[in-house]
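Aim 2 progress. For Dihydrolipoyl dehydrogenase, the working sequence is reproduced below.
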Amino acid sequence: MAMANLARRKAYFLTRNVTTSHTDALRFSFSLSRGFASSGSDENDVVVIGGGPGGYVAAIKAAQLGLKTTCIEKRGALGGTCLNVGCIPSKALLHSSHMYHEAKHAFAHHGIKLASVEVDLPAMLAQKDNAVKNLTRGIEGLFKKNKVTYVKGYGKFLSPNEVSVETIDGDNTVVKGKHIIVATGSDVKSLPGITIDEKKIVSSTGALSLSEVPKKLIVIGAGYIGLEMGSVWGRLGSEVTVVEFAGDIVPSMDGEIRKQFQRSLEKQKMKFMLKTKVVSVDASGDGVKLTVEPAEGGDQTTLEADVVLVSAGRTPFTSGLDLEKIGVETDKGGRILVNERFSTNVSGVYAIGDVIPGPMLAHKAEEDGVACVEFIAGKHGHVDYDKVPGVVYTHPEVASVGKTEEQLKKDGVSYRVGKFPFMANSRAKAIDNAEGLVKILADKETDKILGVHIMSPNAGELIHEAVLAINYDASSEDIARVCHAHPTMSEALKEAAMATYDKPIHI
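Predicted structure tokens for this construct:
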């Protein structure tokens, strides 16, 4: 069986990449000189508009492949939304707030007694800001190391090979490139009739820098971002109410996991108003008043809060790029249309990350960036959006990859389910953190793993064994027969795999 699996994985590795013909390879010929220029005015092999996870990774990879590369970033700090006002600062606050919550509610159970515990919000926010600052500087260091030219300013197309940049110093320069990659990311999706002032009505950006802990916080939208930021302020003392138009939180999540996840959040005193429509928001007084009604119509009610977080999703950011000037096609949602090589309909212009269809995730954008540049360089590139993991960084975390049970039923796929609760995991019990489970979905005939869903502490770390397994078409038996260290949380994944194709040991 082991030899058969090895042969299968080798065959998959050889066939999963898109083949590049000899003609295609000849089409991409470049000068390998790539000095660290003081300006982006000379012609580049690659120009990247946007310095977020997709953009800066694409720029570094292009330089590593020997291509003269310039990256244009309007913010003046690399890392994009993710590093500056998204993924990184939110995880810093999630960790800090969790430490406070543990100190206040769990330490005594472990024999650690404290006279008092209080929040020093300015210090907490400073720690978050320092983390961001160090990481952005780190990317600048990587640019210098790889000889990527960095232009700070707002870029827009003059032609398919020219970008006009209004620099943050007030100057204007033109950056020329044989291949231009649009990697401008996404922005907060606004709601009709709601004006975000980043004080009382905030986006995720404003929610990262509140000057004090609000007594009452209302979150509009029960997606990843809303639940994470709601968790931060809830742990610090806010009374949190989540208002969601849909009937479920995180609609993309596996249904069984979602129900357990919502119960967990409710135990943390987070309140939910599902199937509820926001009619109006009034911030004229000291606080904020929300008028809401049932999504299907009915009597209106008024909610009051100190702060309202608008977290209704994100939208592609392409404003001011002058895409229409060069004829780049977009869909109705404003996303740039690309082919399997990330090429737009305009020769020499490419797009990656949140501005194109697919999951709006930083790690997906990074993979887009690498694959796009590999194609430009005449090499192989590959990203499978069906195998991109997703994580909600609350406590417990929820992580998943592949199909949900609802998707398999809809597609008419015959499958088996294996589950294992962390209540039966020795490491989880030893550290008194045993909430959650692992759920594996596998093809009924072949045992090929189709989806894995984990709710647990550090689920975002545990999921990657499953991501690797799914990428190599592994079976649940493959995971079950791999020796896992004891005692570890990852043993729960092994036991769930055993439950999928046979029987688990410890339950």
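Residues 418 and 432 are 24 Å apart (CA to CA). This observation will guide construct design in the next reporting period.
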